[in-house]
From TrEMBL:
<feature type="active site" description="Cysteine sulfenic acid (-SOH) intermediate; for peroxidase activity">
    <location>
        <position position="46"/>
    </location>
</feature>
<keyword id="KW-0539">Nucleus</keyword>
<dbReference type="GO" id="GO:0005634">
    <property type="term" value="C:nucleus"/>
</dbReference>
<dbReference type="Pfam" id="PF10417">
    <property type="entry name" value="1-cysPrx_C"/>
</dbReference>
<dbReference type="InterPro" id="IPR000866">
    <property type="entry name" value="AhpC/TSA"/>
</dbReference>
<dbReference type="InterPro" id="IPR036249">
    <property type="entry name" value="Thioredoxin-like_sf"/>
</dbReference>
<keyword id="KW-0575">Peroxidase</keyword>
<keyword id="KW-0676">Redox-active center</keyword>
<protein>
    <recommendedName>
        <fullName>Peroxiredoxin</fullName>
        <ecNumber>1.11.1.24</ecNumber>
    </recommendedName>
</protein>
<comment type="function">
    <text>Thiol-specific peroxidase that catalyzes the reduction of hydrogen peroxide and organic hydroperoxides to water and alcohols, respectively. Seems to contribute to the inhibition of germination during stress.</text>
</comment>
<comment type="similarity">
    <text>Belongs to the peroxiredoxin family. Prx6 subfamily.</text>
</comment>
<dbReference type="GO" id="GO:0140824">
    <property type="term" value="F:thioredoxin-dependent peroxiredoxin activity"/>
</dbReference>
<dbReference type="Pfam" id="PF00578">
    <property type="entry name" value="AhpC-TSA"/>
</dbReference>
<feature type="domain" description="Thioredoxin">
    <location>
        <begin position="4"/>
        <end position="165"/>
    </location>
</feature>
<dbReference type="GO" id="GO:0005739">
    <property type="term" value="C:mitochondrion"/>
</dbReference>
<keyword id="KW-0049">Antioxidant</keyword>
<dbReference type="InterPro" id="IPR045020">
    <property type="entry name" value="PRX_1cys"/>
</dbReference>
Length: 221
């Protein structure tokens, strides 16, 4: 589906939420934010996801990342739904705002429409979309899940850590498959060995591959 994707500026929408009126760019501010959609309030998978995100909220906060939900029901419905979410996961308070999009215009602008899931009136519902937005208000990473598949919050957190690691090193490194914090990163192909020695004074390791091109280099970050 065409629409908002990595590298695009997130639309500066202004919507009502469970914590008052929110303008997206002001909410993001000079940090990172995760904007995530849900098909509807009072639905089973969405309730587990919202509770899971509430449980991870402190971890995201430690990293300077804000959370912002959106669902196509109104604010009054969201506030009632929060009671169920918190009851499902005792001890976790839902501290992040949930935006309301009852006319479903916002989900279209945010590219969060599921073409296969419709309500009783035949109107498209939001997909399980998640955008990680950077300080420059552009989309850095997106996840898109169908309604039948709940999101894995460990992977969302891992993706945030990867983005923050790359940003901290000004794009000179990337994270390999199954990377997690504490693992080695790979040095980008635009970085010469000479520059790499300056960037990583403790050294780096080059994988010995049949091509002998020396492109796969690992360093502690």
């Amino acid at each position: 589906m065409p629409g908002l994707t990595i590298g695009d500026t997130i639309p500066n929408l202004e919507l009502d939420s469970t914590q008052g009126r929110i303008r997206i760019h002001d909410f993001v501010g000079d940090g990172y934010a995760i904007i995530f959609s849900h098909p509807a309030d009072f639905t089973p998978v969405c309730t587990t996801e919202m509770a899971a995100m509430a449980g991870y909220a402190e971890e995201f906060k430690k990293r300077g990342v804000k959370l912002l939900g959106i669902s196509c029901d109104d604010v009054a419905s969201h506030k009632e739904w929060i009671k169920d979410i918190e009851a499902f996961k005792p001890g976790s308070k839902l501290t992040y705002p949930i935006m309301a999009d009852p006319d479903r215009n916002a989900i279209r602008e945010l590219n969060m429409v599921d073409p296969d899931e419709k309500d009783a009136r035949g109107v498209s519902l939001p997909s399980r979309t998640l955008h990680i937005v950077g300080p420059d208000k552009t989309v850095k990473l997106s996840f898109l899940y169908p309604a039948c598949t709940g999101r894995n919050m460990d992977e969302v957190l891992r993706a945030v850590d990867s983005l923050l690691t790359a940003a901290r090193h000004k794009g000179k490194v990337a994270t390999p498959a199954n990377w997690k914090p504490g693992d080695r990163a790979v040095i980008g192909p635009s970085v010469s060995d000479e520059e790499a020695r300056k960037l990583f004074p403790d050294g780096f390791e080059t994988a010995d591959l049949p091509s002998k091109k020396g492109y796969l280099r690992f360093a502690k970050v």
